[in-house]
Amino acid sequence: MSLEDSLRSLSLDYLNLLINGQAFSDVTFQVEGRLVHAHRCILAARSLFFRKFFCGPDPPPGLDPAAASRAGAASAARPPGVIPVNSVGYEVFLLLLQFLYSGQVSIVPQKHEARPNCGERGCWHTHCTSAVDLALDTLAAARYFGVEQLALLTQKQLASMVEKASIDDVMKVLIASRKQEMQQLWSTCSHLVAKSGLPPEVLAKHLPIDVVAKIEELRLKSSLARRSMLPLRHPHPDLGAADMEDQKIRRMRRALDSSDVELVKLMVMGEGLNLDEALALHYAVESCSREVVKALLELGAADVNFPAGPAGKTPLHVAAEMVSPEMVAVLLDHHADPNVRTVDGVTPLDILRTLTSDFLFKGAVPGLTHIEPNKLRLCLELVQSAALVLSREEGNNHNNNANNSSNDNTNNPNTSASATAIYPPMSEAHTSSNLDSRLVYLNLGATPQIGDDDSSSQREAMNRHGSQGGGCDPSMYHHSHDF
């Protein structure tokens, strides 16, 4: 048994003590009227708060052992010796205990579970208001009970959530990160709010004045940086015109954030908005839903392969870096080029291969702390399949050119032999993507049939991608965390 397997077994053994309830329990808490049985030695070993509570002369506030002996209806209904917990809710308290016992926890509500602050039917609760609220409550509890490892884990999860959360939830996390002095989370949320395009008077209704001032400062720096990337069209640019363009871009982003693609269409037709120069498609891929990206592409006013900034990244590069099968699929459906290169010569396929290598050999991907292997595998399948189709089409074109050239040479004996095309026909045996496909399947959990044609997995992925019209069934790539 490896060290990792041994630690996992130990973690599950301790977690079973918590799950089995009263088995060997020597302390009982009451949270929101429900009893929770636990073990003093484990809690004291894992948390300084509980160590002081059980062993110190002056127990910290939040848990009130004396309340059990007080008069009143609440204490009369409580069994003797039970410790009431008033600082956190039942669900958050259980998450806290799960981490203390096992060293791991999934701070996400159960899939498709009805939640009071999530009205969307069948929501997966990955970045909705319900998921954000639970993570914020867990973060507050981790800080309150002095479980710093859980606090760091929750911060990372919140940083991942806010990338796709609503702007209201982002501002909620922004305020919490400011109160608890979490600089990295503050930086992530402040940049997202700055990119939202919400005017200062709207932000002032949700955020303190000094925070709004910081957001406006970020916007000014971003605007200056964006202008520096654009080519200089006039020796003395009109600053008023530049400000008007910035206002258009803010309005466009607000429209995309609210899924109002029709307004963007009116801006293109009536105001002459250039979606490529405004990086509309890049912004939609990074910040909006698949439906918004699809509707934006169907306008026909944006170049799906437009290179942005000094690096020259296309929207497909951005989707690959995000490991988003939904975005990769919809972009490929609208003829995104999987072989297009950045200024440094990097293709979307290169990005996914690098991420796969990092995940396989390092166990983690920098900047993607909660990467899901199935999503990574699906993205790689889709992009490899698209690249394979393009290579075959190019091979067929070369063969046709060779045949035409051969016919010309037959009819014209004076034609030089060097003019004849020499490209061989493309065959599956010569494609390098087969090796990549086998590598990903063997290391990320799938088991291909080695005796079969290796490229069949590529064709199946492409057929599945095409039959869904660019969409991806979340059940195909959702990675659950069970305990």
TrEMBL record:
InterPro entries: Ankyrin_rpt, Ankyrin_rpt-contain_sf, BTB/POZ_dom, NPR5/6, NPR_central_dom, SKP1/BTB/POZ_sf, Znf_C2HC_NPR-type. GO terms for cellular component: cytoplasm; nucleus; plasma membrane. Signal peptide: none annotated. This is BTB domain-containing protein. It is a peripheral membrane protein. It comes from the Eukaryota. One of its GO terms (biological process) is induced systemic resistance, jasmonic acid mediated signaling pathway. It comes from Vigna angularis var. angularis.
